[in-house]
Amino acid sequence: MRRGALVRGCRARCDGEDAVERRSWAEPYRVKVVEPIRMTTRAEREERIAEAGYNTFLLRSEDVYIDLLTDSGTAAMSDQQWAAMMVGDEAYAGSRSYYRLEEAVRLVYGYEELVPTHQGRGAEHLLSQVLISPGDVVPGNMYFTTTRFHQEYAGGRFVDVIIDEAHDPESLHPFKGNIDLDKLQAVIDTHGADRVPYVSFETNVNMAGGQPASMANIKAVHERCRHYGIPVMLDATRALENAWFIQQREGGYADRSVAEILREVCDHSEGATVSSKKDNLVNIGGFLAVRDPEIARRARTLLVAFEGLQTYGGMAGRDMEALARGIHEMVETDDHVGARVGQVEYLGDLLVKAGVPIVRPVGGHGVFLDARRICSHLAHEHLPAQALAAAIYRDSGVRGMERGIVSAGRDPQTGEHHTPKLELVRLTLPRRVYTQAHMDVTAESIAHVTDEAEQIPGLEFTYEPGELRFFQARFQPLSG
């Protein structure tokens, strides 16, 4: 049995012979502090979602029963992280907490140059401003909302070069986050290597359903880019989960620790942006990490203007201490990420057994509902994923989020909607927060909503921001 498997083989004596006994697994922690939550009534939820303009982002958390909106900044920190916060050095310049963070990034990720930021999008902004010139083209394995925004804001254009299987929710390809080398080569041939400032390579691709890239693909992409002198920049926000899937699914890695695999992933890149509010188990923070001192120097110049001094970058000393501890903690054993992904798979398995269409294989940080199939009666322009997310909240108080046409936004040149092939509702699991019983409640609600999906009305915009509209847009049900 592979190292770190959630259902572990246990040697047991049986009639004089060794036998493998299958046993249940449990979370590798115990609960020390709890936060009360309450269930609202159906009438209350009907009122709250209407007040929020049918946008789950605009709900108040006090009106949410099980919050699966995001895994960003929502993890439960450990006792060691809380203890670390007490020794945070709040010096404006040269904080010792910064140097502890710098050491953690070097040891675990392997990058020499650290530029701290208040969260991941701060790192995306710095990287885009430093490397992208107007007219550049940035190939990547499926867009992410804030990443593409910062690339376009710097004058670049994102081009999707992910494999075709990533756009098929029913494909069981084990590494749907892979970059298609032929698509990448076509971008280089068409635009020239000098107009490709870097390849944006996301680990555990969010918009594809939390799908990993294989180590073989990561190496091949890096080798191809090195031939042309093009840097590979990772979005390593969920690289830990990607490393887990490599261990579980890719030949030659079953006996390697997740820490070793994570380091090898990063070794095949020139740098990374990280939102530390995910893998790193903290409520705030992020960083840009690179190998080139000149890129780091230019990024630090912008950091001082937009974020803070180079030794805090928008974070308090106590936050840097918690982050440094979280980076070490996430790779101390494989049990942490195994249990984290295992809970996601548990919810996914419940939904599959209930006949709910989801993106498969189940991803690393959440379960993604195939809203286009569930709400097949709704046209794409009637926003089926947004409507489904609102319907789930009305049913049970479970909050997910839309990942479809609303999130995709509009083409900045034509003003037309981007129309992604995937129209999804994301149910993202915070780390170390909910029990399996919460997953049971969630699955029962979604199964019920799916059974009555033909009653879900479509939605239309009543307010549409110009940028990143899914955060603040408001909607109303279609009349009739």
From TrEMBL:
UniProt-listed Pfam families: Beta_elim_lyase (PF01212)
Residue stretches making up the Aromatic amino acid beta-eliminating lyase/threonine aldolase domain: 67-444
UniProtKB keywords: Lyase, Pyridoxal phosphate
GO biological process: aromatic amino acid metabolic process
Parts forming coiled coils: none
Highest taxon of source: Bacteria
Keyword Lyase annotated: yes
Molecular functions per Gene Ontology: tyrosine phenol-lyase activity
Record PANTHER family: BETA-ELIMINATING LYASE-LIKE PROTEIN-RELATED, TRYPTOPHANASE
Alphabetical list of NCBIfam families matching this protein: PRK13238.1 (NF009709)
Entry's family note: Belongs to the beta-eliminating lyase family.
Protein name: Tyrosine phenol-lyase
